[in-house]
């Protein structure tokens, strides 16, 4: 069996997921890294990690909306490394759904990525995490608590993930800890955000700046490795924005 702890990270090819992967790898974890479409970026990340520590990664590619494929991701990680110590549900879908234009397809897409896949991955991983007394970290959002205009379905899906985090923490105790991270302004969307909106958001953040992917990754590492008496919690990494 692999001597190093092993974590499965979804949505690991880019943005916050890639930073989580680099942070965990530097801390001594072997990694099963998932992507949906960004395979070239995932391969580039894995090349860097493998040069640092050979045979320490596994690439996985799947559409998490295909729920029947989710157990196979866990099985592949366990087959490759012989164990599973952590699951980071980072993969997400995000797009606006203005009231009056919402479709069932939008609902299905946002709930599949943000709520259903994390639950079914946790269910598949649970026996292995119980054996290793491991942990789950779910990436949620400050908008699970405070609605974002024109993004009602996204907020509802992340709120469902917040409830799943607490429910799983209860059901998997005492062997497995389950916690969440609710990031604030860390990275702007791929489509960008107008400068005026960026400035307004930072003005509503007590620390008066954006956070970084490293802020989120460090929190994920702490929850996985060090927070031995913490479960069922959702930590805001938002620069104090929830205070206002």
Automatic annotation (TrEMBL):
Q: What EC number(s) is this enzyme filed under? A: 1.5.1.33
MF annotations from Gene Ontology: pteridine reductase activity
Write down the SUPFAM superfamilies for this protein, in alphabetical order: NAD(P)-binding Rossmann-fold domains (SSF51735)
Q: What class of enzyme is it?
A: oxidoreductase
Q: InterPro entries in the record, alphabetically?
A: NAD(P)-bd_dom_sf, SDR_fam
UniProt entry keywords in alphabetical sequence: Oxidoreductase
Please state which protein family the record places this protein in: Belongs to the short-chain dehydrogenases/reductases (SDR) family.
- Name-wise, this protein is Pteridine reductase
Q: What is the source species?
A: Dokdonella ginsengisoli
């Amino acid at each position: 069996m692999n001597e190093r702890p092993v974590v499965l990270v979804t949505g690991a090819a880019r943005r916050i997921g890639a930073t989580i992967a680099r942070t965990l790898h530097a801390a001594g974890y072997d990694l099963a890294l998932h992507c949906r479409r960004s395979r070239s970026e995932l391969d580039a990340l894995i090349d860097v990690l493998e040069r640092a520590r050979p045979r320490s990664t596994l690439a996985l590619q799947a559409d998490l909306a295909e729920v029947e494929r989710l157990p196979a991701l866990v099985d592949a990680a366990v087959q490759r490394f012989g164990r599973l110590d952590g699951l980071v549900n980072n993969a997400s879908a995000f797009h606006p759904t203005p009231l009056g234009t919402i479709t069932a397809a939008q609902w299905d897409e946002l709930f599949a990525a943000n709520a259903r896949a994390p639950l079914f991955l946790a269910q598949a991983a649970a026996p292995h995490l119980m054996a290793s007394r491991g942990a789950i970290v779910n990436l949620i959002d400050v908008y699970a608590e405070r609605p974002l205009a024109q993004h009602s379905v996204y907020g509802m899906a992340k709120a469902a993930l917040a409830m799943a985090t607490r429910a799983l923490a209860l059901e998997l105790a005492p062997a497995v800890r389950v916690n969440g991270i609710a990031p604030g302004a860390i990275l702007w969307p791929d489509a960008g955000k107008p400068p005026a909106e960026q400035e307004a958001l930072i003005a509503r953040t007590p620390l008066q700046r954006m956070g970084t992917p490293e802020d989120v990754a460090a929190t994920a590492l702490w929850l996985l490795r060090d927070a031995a008496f913490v479960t069922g919690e959702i930590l805001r990494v938002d620069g104090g924005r929830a205070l206002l």
